[in-house]
Amino acid sequence: MNLLSVGASYRTAGVGTLERLTIAGPDIPAVLHKLVAQPYIGEAVVLSTCNRVEVYAAVSGFHGGLGDVCNVLAEQSGIGANELAGHLYVHYDEAAVRHSFRVSSGLDSMVVGEAQILGQLRDAYHAATEADSAGRLLHELMQQALRVGKRAHAETGIDRAGQSVVSAALDVAADAFGGDLSGRPGLVIGAGAMGALSVATLTRTGVGPLRITNRGAERAARLAEAYGATAVEFADLDAALRDADVVVCATASTEPVLTAARLAGRERPLVVLDLAVPRDVAPDVAGLPNVTVVDIDGLATSRRTMPAAAETAAVEQIVATEVENFLGWLRGADIAPTVAALRTRADEVVTAELRKLSARRPEFSEEQRADISRTLHRVVQQLLHSPTVRVRQLAAEPGGDQYAALLRELFDLDVPHATQADAVPEIGGQA
């Protein structure tokens, strides 16, 4: 099986396309089952966030696997295959490993260095584990990607140089109030992961008094209690909006929560940060007087999302080292079936010869036959020991896949999935 990563992000698609591609949490298990039911896909993990939707898959062939992933994404989103193709990036084998490590370390995030992606990737991995769609290859990839992300944040200043998406949005919002949001009344709509991050960031920034509303009142109440904020009923949203200067929308609603009718008639400035995908703010809100809307598209072009070059270079070096380590493991893992097939072939040869000996020398006792069998097996195992240990070492080095191929050729070994019938050169697009 080979690694394949297919996705769309804020780099390749606008919010409108990402809204259609986004896979809600409750729908992910069904999508995972649909993916692994495809003929070329053996394992799958789906990562769906506010600014990216990606499928990581273990596939038996590049073209077949890519077609399977695209078909599922097209069916799920309702976007035609031709239109969808223009927004997708594709990474294969080594490039897929590198991409996953860059994603986990925050290098591919809209706000470079933000740490929220680690939690999102962990949730995606757990969902795949629960759905039993992650096998040996993706288990290893996800575990290593999470470790690389933690290492990047622990060993470099990437998260000090970068910010969360919420922090970047608040920087943009501050411009509307002379650069300072302290003491400005705030409202957070939504109490999920992004809502909680928004509350924490607003509190740290000095926005207040702060109110929280959510369709599930209990979750809003818990979040408000944790940060000294006030929970308001979702039915009282209009009243809460009238008192706010800064509003953060981060719900999982499939329809706009804030419309022009709801926000019309503002007499003082209001900044609305729409961090949801699909968008919480209807397009017609942007034309209202005294209302400023900042969304994912606006953040993507903000220079506030760019950290210092030194931090990104340090993380890129960590990623490069860890990619090579993973490829070494992968090459070693790939040769294991070939080594096992070689040992099986040797055992078959010994067994066949013992059977012939038994037919020629029926006078041998059972004890004598057992002694001969043990001796022959020991001799074969000793002969094979050094070559198989050495070939494992060689296979872990760059170009090591050649050694497995040579073993299969020399000993005429039939190893399932040892060769890739649908091989293509390495592909890696910028996401």
UniProtKB/TrEMBL annotation:
Residues 6-156 form the Glutamyl-tRNA reductase N-terminal domain. Residues 315-413 form the Tetrapyrrole biosynthesis glutamyl-tRNA reductase dimerisation domain. The active site is at C50. Substrate binds at T49, C50, N51, R52, S109, E114, A115, Q116, Q120. GO terms for molecular function: glutamyl-tRNA reductase activity; NADP binding. It is an enzyme of class 1 (oxidoreductase). It catalyses: (S)-4-amino-5-oxopentanoate + tRNA(Glu) + NADP(+) = L-glutamyl-tRNA(Glu) + NADPH + H(+). During catalysis, the active site Cys acts as a nucleophile attacking the alpha-carbonyl group of tRNA-bound glutamate with the formation of a thioester intermediate between enzyme and glutamate, and the concomitant release of tRNA(Glu). The thioester intermediate is finally reduced by direct hydride transfer from NADPH, to form the product GSA. Possesses an unusual extended V-shaped dimeric structure with each monomer consisting of three distinct domains arranged along a curved 'spinal' alpha-helix. The N-terminal catalytic domain specifically recognizes the glutamate moiety of the substrate. The second domain is the NADPH-binding domain, and the third C-terminal domain is responsible for dimerization. HAMAP family: Glu_tRNA_reductase (MF_00087). Homodimer. This is Glutamyl-tRNA reductase. It comes from Couchioplanes caeruleus subsp. caeruleus. The gene is hemA.
